[in-house]
Every structure is written in structure tokens, then in C-alpha cells.
Design goal:
Layout lengths: L1 H24 L5 H18 L7 H21 L9 H12 L1 H19 L4 H18 L1 H6 L1 H28 L4 H10 L1 H33 L2
Helix pairs in contact: 1-2, 1-6, 2-5, 2-6, 3-4, 3-5, 4-5, 4-6, 4-10, 5-6, 6-8, 8-9, 8-10
Length: about 220
């Protein structure tokens, strides 16, 4: 119970707080330090989960592979803005390897892939948003595994949340605070992206549900993760 509370405090409060505080007080000047702090903090609960794991090395390698697949897939789909499988891979990782693994996969996917797309103040934004989507996906793992309708619904909500939270962070970065008028403007301008991303999440989650779930279950059973 103590470890669960510690995980929630770290990933739902501390990491977002560092991102928001760093954005308001430092902005572009310290974005890489903010991103690195978020990356380190996102890994701590994951490694603490090894206490009950009989194969920590295998679990680490598996998550590293999922991050690599997520990064490569984002690069492959670079010509199609908004239509990306990163969220789907992050959610599936969380569903089968735990919410901590989901958060870390989402956060590191953003950090590593932006070495190709370009680093900036958006990097810690994307890290925290994808991380939280993965974390919540891990919490909802059981119902998401049982129902493709719920899985598609979570994909839809994730796409909307990603866009709205991105606009929120951009508003903080632009004004060093929450300017409602600017935020509404960002939301309106990003609405087409929101729709495309939400649809892509549904498509990729349903595709992964056809075979990836069984494959991940076999990996868990084979290596007793």
C-alpha cells in the first residue's frame, strides 16, 4: 500500500508539478533539465516494482524494446502528422506490464524520439502527457483487455486529452500562467489534429488487440514477469 501511494505521488503529482513549475519559471531556458528530471522520476517507481518481480532484467529489456518500437513507429509515421501509434503502444505496455511501465514507456518515447523530431519545451510536455496516458491505461488494464469497445473509447479519450493537455502546457509556456483566451485559441486551432490523433489511437489500439495482446501474455508467462 505504501509503495502504491508513493507511485501515485511520484507520477501523478511530483512529475507534473516539476513540469508545470519549470515551464512557468524557466520556460525555454531549462527545458532539457526539466525533461531529464521527468525521465529520471518516471523510472523510479518502475524500478521499485522489481521487489516482487522474479525477472527484473527481462522486464527491463522488454520495456526497452517497447520504447524502441514506439520511437521507430513514430519516425515511420512522421509523414502523417497526428496519425501516430505511440499512444497505442504505450497503453498496451501499461495494460500488460503495469502502470509504472506504461508511464515510463510514454515518457521515454517522447524524450528519445524527439532526438529525431527536435527537442524543445514541448519535450517535457509530451513526456508527462504520454506518461499519464500510459499510467491510467495500466490502472484500467482489466476492463480494457476484456472489451474492445472500452479500448476504443480509451483511445478516443486519450487523443482528446493529449491535445487539450498539450494546449494547456503551451499556454503556460507562452504566458508563464494560464491565459484562458489564448488556451481557447490553441484548442480551436488544434481541433483537426485532435480528431486525427483520436482516430489514429482507436485504429492502432484495435490493430494491436488482434495479436499483440496474446504475444505479451506469452512473454509474461514464459519469463514469469
Amino acid at each position: 500500500m505504501v509503495k502504491k501511494i508513493f507511485t501515485y505521488i511520484f507520477l501523478l503529482l511530483l512529475v507534473p508539478a516539476i513540469t508545470v513549475t519549470g515551464t512557468i519559471f524557466f520556460g525555454e531556458n531549462m527545458y532539457m533539465w526539466i525533461a531529464l528530471c521527468a525521465a529520471v522520476l518516471s523510472c523510479i517507481p518502475f524500478f521499485l516494482s522489481f521487489e516482487k518481480s522474479e525477472a527484473p532484467a527481462i522486464k527491463t529489456v522488454t520495456i526497452a524494446v517497447m520504447v524502441a518500437v514506439s520511437v521507430i513507429s513514430r519516425i515511420i509515421f512522421a509523414p502523417t502528422p497526428g496519425f501516430k501509434p505511440v499512444t497505442a503502444i504505450t497503453v498496451f505496455t501499461a495494460m500488460y506490464f503495469g502502470k509504472e511501465a506504461g508511464f515510463m514507456t510514454g515518457a521515454l518515447s517522447a524524450l528519445v524520439s524527439n532526438m529525431f523530431f527536435g527537442q524543445g519545451m514541448w519535450t517535457p510536455f509530451q513526456m508527462i502527457i504520454w506518461g499519464l496516458i500510459g499510467f491510467v491505461g495500466g490502472i484500467l488494464a482489466s476492463p480494457l483487455k476484456r472489451s474492445k469497445i472500452l479500448l476504443a473509447g480509451y483511445g478516443l479519450i486519450s487523443g482528446i486529452a493529449f491535445s487539450l493537455l498539450s494546449d494547456f502546457f503551451w499556454t503556460l509556456s507562452s504566458d508563464r500562467g494560464l491565459n484562458i483566451s489564448r488556451y481557447i485559441g490553441y484548442v480551436i486551432n488544434s481541433f483537426p489534429f485532435m480528431c486525427i490523433y483520436a482516430v489514429s489511437n482507436i485504429v492502432f489500439l484495435l490493430i494491436l488487440s488482434l495479436s499483440a495482446g496474446k504475444m505479451m501474455e506469452r512473454i509474461k508467462i514464459k519469463f514469469n514477469i
